[in-house]
Design goal:
- There is one protein chain.
- With about 350 residues, the chain is of the alpha+beta class.
- The chain folds into two domains: about 1-65 and about 280-350, no CATH class; about 70-185 and about 240-280, no CATH class.
- About 45% of the residues lie in helices and about 15% in strands.
- It contains twelve helices and eight strands.
- It has helices spanning about 25-30, 45, 55-60, 80-110, 125-140, 145-170, 195-205, 215-230, 235-245, 250-260, 310-315, 315-335; strands spanning about 1-5, 15-20, 75-80, 175-180, 270-275, 285-295, 295-300, 340-345.
- The strands form three sheets. Strands 3-5-4 form a three-stranded antiparallel beta sheet, covered by helices on one side. Strands 7-6-8 form a three-stranded antiparallel beta sheet, with helices on one face. Strands 1-2 form a two-stranded antiparallel ribbon.
- α7 (about 195-205) packs antiparallel against α8.
- The radius of gyration is 22 Å and the shape is globular.
- The model is unreliable at about 1-20 (pLDDT under 50).
- Keywords: Coiled coil.
Length: about 350
Protein backbone atom coordinates (compact mmCIF):
# COMPACT_ATOMS: atom_id res chain seq x y z
CA UNK A 1 0.00 0.00 0.00
CA UNK A 2 2.96 2.30 0.33
CA UNK A 3 6.71 2.80 0.41
CA UNK A 4 8.77 3.92 3.38
CA UNK A 5 11.73 6.16 2.64
CA UNK A 6 14.36 6.25 5.38
CA UNK A 7 16.57 9.32 5.76
CA UNK A 8 19.64 8.65 7.87
CA UNK A 9 21.67 11.51 9.34
CA UNK A 10 25.36 11.62 8.33
CA UNK A 11 26.53 11.19 11.92
CA UNK A 12 27.30 8.24 14.12
CA UNK A 13 24.32 8.66 16.43
CA UNK A 14 20.86 10.06 15.99
CA UNK A 15 17.39 8.93 14.93
CA UNK A 16 16.33 8.10 11.41
CA UNK A 17 13.33 9.88 9.94
CA UNK A 18 10.72 7.75 8.19
CA UNK A 19 8.41 9.21 5.57
CA UNK A 20 5.51 7.18 4.18
CA UNK A 21 4.96 7.53 0.43
CA UNK A 22 1.74 6.06 -0.94
CA UNK A 23 1.66 4.16 -4.22
CA UNK A 24 -0.90 6.71 -5.42
CA UNK A 25 1.70 9.44 -4.98
CA UNK A 26 4.24 7.42 -6.95
CA UNK A 27 1.80 6.62 -9.77
CA UNK A 28 0.78 10.27 -10.01
CA UNK A 29 4.37 11.25 -10.73
CA UNK A 30 5.00 8.72 -13.52
CA UNK A 31 4.53 10.82 -16.63
CA UNK A 32 0.84 11.52 -16.12
CA UNK A 33 1.27 15.25 -16.05
CA UNK A 34 -0.66 15.36 -12.76
CA UNK A 35 2.34 15.75 -10.49
CA UNK A 36 3.14 19.27 -9.33
CA UNK A 37 6.91 18.75 -9.07
CA UNK A 38 9.76 17.97 -11.49
CA UNK A 39 10.21 14.22 -11.76
CA UNK A 40 12.72 11.86 -13.38
CA UNK A 41 9.86 9.79 -14.80
CA UNK A 42 8.21 12.63 -16.70
CA UNK A 43 8.75 12.68 -20.45
CA UNK A 44 9.32 16.42 -20.68
CA UNK A 45 12.29 16.19 -18.35
CA UNK A 46 14.00 13.81 -20.77
CA UNK A 47 13.05 15.01 -24.25
CA UNK A 48 12.54 18.74 -23.75
CA UNK A 49 15.89 20.24 -24.69
CA UNK A 50 15.30 23.10 -22.24
CA UNK A 51 14.77 20.72 -19.30
CA UNK A 52 16.88 21.45 -16.25
CA UNK A 53 17.27 17.73 -15.68
CA UNK A 54 19.80 17.85 -18.53
CA UNK A 55 23.39 18.87 -17.84
CA UNK A 56 23.61 21.10 -20.90
CA UNK A 57 21.02 23.38 -19.26
CA UNK A 58 21.64 23.32 -15.50
CA UNK A 59 25.39 23.73 -16.01
CA UNK A 60 25.24 27.05 -17.88
CA UNK A 61 24.29 29.46 -15.08
CA UNK A 62 26.65 27.92 -12.51
CA UNK A 63 29.57 26.82 -14.69
CA UNK A 64 31.90 29.20 -12.82
CA UNK A 65 31.12 27.31 -9.60
CA UNK A 66 31.49 23.77 -10.90
CA UNK A 67 34.56 21.80 -9.78
CA UNK A 68 37.16 24.54 -9.80
CA UNK A 69 35.57 26.34 -12.74
CA UNK A 70 34.63 23.95 -15.53
CA UNK A 71 36.40 25.32 -18.61
CA UNK A 72 33.84 25.69 -21.40
CA UNK A 73 36.60 25.90 -24.00
CA UNK A 74 37.72 22.35 -23.14
CA UNK A 75 34.23 20.83 -22.88
CA UNK A 76 32.15 19.29 -25.66
CA UNK A 77 28.56 18.24 -26.22
CA UNK A 78 28.06 15.32 -28.60
CA UNK A 79 24.61 14.55 -30.00
CA UNK A 80 23.99 10.82 -29.71
CA UNK A 81 22.09 9.56 -32.73
CA UNK A 82 19.14 7.22 -32.44
CA UNK A 83 21.23 4.50 -34.12
CA UNK A 84 24.00 4.95 -31.55
CA UNK A 85 21.52 4.84 -28.68
CA UNK A 86 19.94 1.70 -30.14
CA UNK A 87 23.35 0.07 -30.52
CA UNK A 88 24.13 0.66 -26.82
CA UNK A 89 20.78 -0.86 -25.81
CA UNK A 90 21.19 -3.90 -28.04
CA UNK A 91 24.76 -4.53 -26.87
CA UNK A 92 23.79 -4.44 -23.19
CA UNK A 93 20.80 -6.70 -23.78
CA UNK A 94 22.89 -9.19 -25.72
CA UNK A 95 25.79 -9.31 -23.28
CA UNK A 96 23.33 -9.86 -20.42
CA UNK A 97 21.86 -12.80 -22.34
CA UNK A 98 25.30 -14.33 -22.89
CA UNK A 99 26.18 -13.71 -19.24
CA UNK A 100 23.01 -15.45 -18.09
CA UNK A 101 23.79 -18.48 -20.26
CA UNK A 102 27.29 -18.62 -18.80
CA UNK A 103 26.01 -18.27 -15.23
CA UNK A 104 23.44 -21.02 -15.74
CA UNK A 105 26.08 -23.44 -17.05
CA UNK A 106 28.43 -22.74 -14.15
CA UNK A 107 25.67 -23.23 -11.58
CA UNK A 108 24.56 -26.47 -13.26
CA UNK A 109 28.06 -27.84 -12.74
CA UNK A 110 28.16 -26.78 -9.07
CA UNK A 111 24.85 -27.93 -7.58
CA UNK A 112 23.05 -24.73 -8.52
CA UNK A 113 25.61 -22.48 -6.81
CA UNK A 114 28.39 -20.22 -8.00
CA UNK A 115 31.85 -21.49 -6.91
CA UNK A 116 33.32 -19.63 -3.96
CA UNK A 117 35.15 -16.50 -5.06
CA UNK A 118 33.44 -16.51 -8.46
CA UNK A 119 31.44 -13.39 -9.48
CA UNK A 120 27.72 -13.99 -8.96
CA UNK A 121 26.75 -12.44 -12.29
CA UNK A 122 28.68 -12.53 -15.56
CA UNK A 123 27.18 -9.15 -16.40
CA UNK A 124 29.19 -7.71 -13.51
CA UNK A 125 32.36 -9.70 -14.14
CA UNK A 126 35.05 -7.50 -15.77
CA UNK A 127 36.90 -10.52 -17.18
CA UNK A 128 33.76 -11.89 -18.82
CA UNK A 129 32.83 -8.49 -20.26
CA UNK A 130 36.33 -7.97 -21.68
CA UNK A 131 36.30 -11.46 -23.19
CA UNK A 132 32.83 -10.99 -24.70
CA UNK A 133 33.88 -7.76 -26.42
CA UNK A 134 37.12 -9.19 -27.80
CA UNK A 135 35.54 -12.42 -29.07
CA UNK A 136 31.81 -12.12 -29.70
CA UNK A 137 31.62 -8.45 -30.68
CA UNK A 138 34.84 -7.80 -32.60
CA UNK A 139 34.92 -11.23 -34.28
CA UNK A 140 31.28 -12.15 -34.86
CA UNK A 141 29.35 -8.90 -35.12
CA UNK A 142 30.95 -7.81 -38.43
CA UNK A 143 29.45 -10.84 -40.23
CA UNK A 144 25.93 -10.23 -38.89
CA UNK A 145 23.58 -7.91 -40.80
CA UNK A 146 22.07 -6.14 -37.78
CA UNK A 147 25.02 -6.44 -35.42
CA UNK A 148 27.42 -5.00 -37.99
CA UNK A 149 25.25 -1.87 -38.07
CA UNK A 150 25.34 -1.67 -34.28
CA UNK A 151 29.12 -2.04 -34.27
CA UNK A 152 29.43 0.69 -36.90
CA UNK A 153 27.31 3.03 -34.75
CA UNK A 154 29.36 2.26 -31.62
CA UNK A 155 32.61 2.91 -33.48
CA UNK A 156 31.25 6.21 -34.79
CA UNK A 157 30.39 7.30 -31.25
CA UNK A 158 33.81 6.17 -30.03
CA UNK A 159 35.48 8.30 -32.72
CA UNK A 160 33.48 11.37 -31.66
CA UNK A 161 34.33 10.74 -28.02
CA UNK A 162 38.03 10.43 -28.88
CA UNK A 163 38.00 13.91 -30.41
CA UNK A 164 36.15 15.36 -27.41
CA UNK A 165 38.41 13.64 -24.86
CA UNK A 166 41.54 14.87 -26.64
CA UNK A 167 40.11 18.38 -26.43
CA UNK A 168 39.22 17.99 -22.74
CA UNK A 169 42.76 16.85 -21.91
CA UNK A 170 44.23 20.00 -23.41
CA UNK A 171 47.96 19.67 -23.95
CA UNK A 172 48.53 17.34 -21.01
CA UNK A 173 49.05 13.62 -21.53
CA UNK A 174 48.35 13.00 -17.84
CA UNK A 175 44.96 14.73 -17.93
CA UNK A 176 41.70 12.85 -18.38
CA UNK A 177 38.05 13.50 -19.19
CA UNK A 178 34.72 12.95 -17.46
CA UNK A 179 31.89 11.62 -19.63
CA UNK A 180 28.17 11.57 -18.88
CA UNK A 181 24.91 11.64 -20.82
CA UNK A 182 22.41 14.49 -20.64
CA UNK A 183 20.68 13.06 -17.59
CA UNK A 184 23.07 10.77 -15.69
CA UNK A 185 26.64 9.50 -15.56
CA UNK A 186 27.76 5.86 -15.87
CA UNK A 187 29.16 5.85 -12.33
CA UNK A 188 27.65 2.43 -11.56
CA UNK A 189 29.80 0.87 -14.31
CA UNK A 190 33.06 1.33 -12.41
CA UNK A 191 32.32 -1.83 -10.41
CA UNK A 192 32.33 -3.79 -13.68
CA UNK A 193 35.88 -2.74 -14.58
CA UNK A 194 39.27 -4.19 -13.65
CA UNK A 195 40.85 -0.80 -13.11
CA UNK A 196 38.43 -0.01 -10.26
CA UNK A 197 39.72 -3.01 -8.31
CA UNK A 198 43.32 -2.10 -9.11
CA UNK A 199 42.80 1.45 -7.79
CA UNK A 200 40.98 0.13 -4.72
CA UNK A 201 43.72 -2.38 -3.90
CA UNK A 202 46.39 0.31 -4.19
CA UNK A 203 44.42 2.74 -2.02
CA UNK A 204 43.85 0.14 0.70
CA UNK A 205 47.53 -0.85 0.72
CA UNK A 206 48.48 2.80 1.19
CA UNK A 207 46.16 3.03 4.18
CA UNK A 208 47.77 -0.04 5.85
CA UNK A 209 44.67 -1.27 7.67
CA UNK A 210 45.57 -3.80 10.37
CA UNK A 211 42.42 -3.90 12.47
CA UNK A 212 38.68 -4.41 12.21
CA UNK A 213 36.97 -1.54 13.98
CA UNK A 214 34.87 1.53 13.26
CA UNK A 215 37.82 3.60 12.09
CA UNK A 216 39.11 0.92 9.72
CA UNK A 217 35.58 0.51 8.32
CA UNK A 218 35.44 4.23 7.59
CA UNK A 219 38.82 4.01 5.85
CA UNK A 220 37.61 1.10 3.72
CA UNK A 221 34.46 2.97 2.68
CA UNK A 222 36.57 6.04 1.88
CA UNK A 223 38.81 3.85 -0.29
CA UNK A 224 35.79 2.49 -2.16
CA UNK A 225 34.51 6.00 -2.84
CA UNK A 226 37.98 7.14 -3.92
CA UNK A 227 38.36 4.20 -6.33
CA UNK A 228 34.82 4.74 -7.67
CA UNK A 229 35.67 8.36 -8.44
CA UNK A 230 39.09 7.66 -9.97
CA UNK A 231 37.72 4.85 -12.16
CA UNK A 232 35.53 7.41 -13.95
CA UNK A 233 38.63 9.04 -15.44
CA UNK A 234 38.71 8.56 -19.19
CA UNK A 235 42.08 8.87 -20.89
CA UNK A 236 40.73 7.29 -24.08
CA UNK A 237 37.43 6.90 -25.88
CA UNK A 238 37.70 3.14 -25.36
CA UNK A 239 37.52 3.69 -21.58
CA UNK A 240 34.53 6.00 -22.04
CA UNK A 241 32.73 3.43 -24.19
CA UNK A 242 33.44 0.72 -21.61
CA UNK A 243 31.68 2.83 -18.99
CA UNK A 244 28.68 3.57 -21.20
CA UNK A 245 28.32 -0.07 -22.27
CA UNK A 246 28.51 -1.45 -18.71
CA UNK A 247 26.11 0.94 -17.01
CA UNK A 248 22.55 0.15 -15.96
CA UNK A 249 21.99 3.89 -15.46
CA UNK A 250 22.91 4.63 -19.06
CA UNK A 251 20.81 1.71 -20.30
CA UNK A 252 17.73 2.94 -18.41
CA UNK A 253 18.21 6.56 -19.52
CA UNK A 254 18.51 5.63 -23.19
CA UNK A 255 15.61 3.18 -22.99
CA UNK A 256 13.50 5.77 -21.18
CA UNK A 257 14.35 8.37 -23.81
CA UNK A 258 13.53 6.00 -26.65
CA UNK A 259 10.16 5.10 -25.11
CA UNK A 260 9.27 8.76 -24.57
CA UNK A 261 10.12 9.73 -28.17
CA UNK A 262 8.93 6.66 -30.08
CA UNK A 263 5.97 7.35 -32.34
CA UNK A 264 5.67 11.00 -31.30
CA UNK A 265 6.22 13.33 -34.24
CA UNK A 266 6.77 16.28 -31.91
CA UNK A 267 9.51 14.55 -29.94
CA UNK A 268 12.85 13.47 -31.36
CA UNK A 269 15.72 11.42 -29.97
CA UNK A 270 17.99 14.15 -28.64
CA UNK A 271 20.27 12.76 -25.93
CA UNK A 272 23.76 14.23 -25.68
CA UNK A 273 27.06 13.10 -24.24
CA UNK A 274 28.83 15.76 -22.18
CA UNK A 275 32.64 15.55 -22.12
CA UNK A 276 34.62 17.77 -19.76
CA UNK A 277 38.05 17.82 -18.10
CA UNK A 278 38.22 15.43 -15.15
CA UNK A 279 38.87 17.47 -12.02
CA UNK A 280 41.28 16.13 -9.40
CA UNK A 281 40.63 18.98 -7.00
CA UNK A 282 38.10 17.57 -4.58
CA UNK A 283 37.96 14.99 -1.82
CA UNK A 284 35.19 12.37 -2.40
CA UNK A 285 34.70 12.11 1.36
CA UNK A 286 33.85 15.83 1.43
CA UNK A 287 30.93 15.66 -0.97
CA UNK A 288 27.47 16.76 0.13
CA UNK A 289 23.98 16.98 -1.29
CA UNK A 290 21.61 19.83 -0.55
CA UNK A 291 17.86 19.90 -1.14
CA UNK A 292 15.58 22.77 -2.09
CA UNK A 293 11.77 22.71 -2.24
CA UNK A 294 9.59 25.68 -3.05
CA UNK A 295 12.66 27.87 -3.25
CA UNK A 296 13.72 27.07 0.31
CA UNK A 297 16.58 24.94 1.57
CA UNK A 298 15.14 21.92 3.31
CA UNK A 299 18.07 19.61 4.07
CA UNK A 300 21.71 18.78 3.54
CA UNK A 301 23.46 15.44 3.97
CA UNK A 302 26.82 13.86 3.37
CA UNK A 303 26.69 12.32 -0.10
CA UNK A 304 27.72 9.01 1.44
CA UNK A 305 26.22 8.92 4.96
CA UNK A 306 26.97 5.27 5.59
CA UNK A 307 29.80 5.64 8.09
CA UNK A 308 30.89 8.04 10.78
CA UNK A 309 33.43 10.54 9.43
CA UNK A 310 35.36 12.19 12.23
CA UNK A 311 36.72 14.86 9.88
CA UNK A 312 33.24 16.09 8.96
CA UNK A 313 32.10 16.28 12.58
CA UNK A 314 35.31 17.99 13.74
CA UNK A 315 35.28 20.59 10.96
CA UNK A 316 31.51 20.96 10.57
CA UNK A 317 31.52 24.72 11.23
CA UNK A 318 34.14 25.43 8.54
CA UNK A 319 32.48 23.01 6.15
CA UNK A 320 29.04 24.56 6.57
CA UNK A 321 30.37 28.11 6.16
CA UNK A 322 31.97 27.16 2.83
CA UNK A 323 28.92 25.23 1.67
CA UNK A 324 26.66 28.15 2.57
CA UNK A 325 28.91 30.54 0.64
CA UNK A 326 28.90 28.46 -2.56
CA UNK A 327 25.24 27.49 -2.25
CA UNK A 328 24.26 31.16 -1.90
CA UNK A 329 26.17 31.99 -5.09
CA UNK A 330 24.41 29.16 -6.93
CA UNK A 331 20.98 30.25 -5.67
CA UNK A 332 21.56 33.69 -7.17
CA UNK A 333 22.02 32.13 -10.62
CA UNK A 334 19.40 29.37 -10.56
CA UNK A 335 15.74 29.99 -11.37
CA UNK A 336 14.67 26.54 -10.16
CA UNK A 337 12.42 26.25 -7.11
CA UNK A 338 12.79 22.48 -6.57
CA UNK A 339 16.16 20.78 -6.94
CA UNK A 340 19.01 18.94 -5.28
CA UNK A 341 22.58 20.20 -5.53
CA UNK A 342 25.88 18.42 -5.03
CA UNK A 343 28.63 20.35 -3.26
CA UNK A 344 32.21 19.10 -3.29
CA UNK A 345 35.25 20.32 -1.38
CA UNK A 346 39.01 19.89 -1.56
CA UNK A 347 39.56 20.44 2.17
CA UNK A 348 37.25 21.64 4.96
CA UNK A 349 38.44 25.16 4.07
CA UNK A 350 38.02 25.14 0.27
Amino acid sequence: SGVTVVFRPPIRQGPSMRVAVSLEDVKKEVDTGKGDRPCYWKAENHVDETSNLRVENWLKPIRHLVLAHDDASLSSTIRITHDQGTAILRYIEEVKMFANIRDTKIKAQNNGQMPEGHPEEGWKDPLFLDHHWETEVLKNWPSSKNRSKWLKSLKELESELETAITKAKGNSETSAAFVKLSVRSPKDAVFNQKRYYEILEKRLSERKINSVDEKSLSIRVEAIRYASWKALKCYTAKQAMDLLLRSERIYVDILQHELFTKGDKDRKFNLNAHVAPFKETFDPSLEFRGFVAGGKRTAITAYSPFVYDEKIVKEKKKIWEKIDEIWTQAEAKLTLKDYSIELAMTTPDT
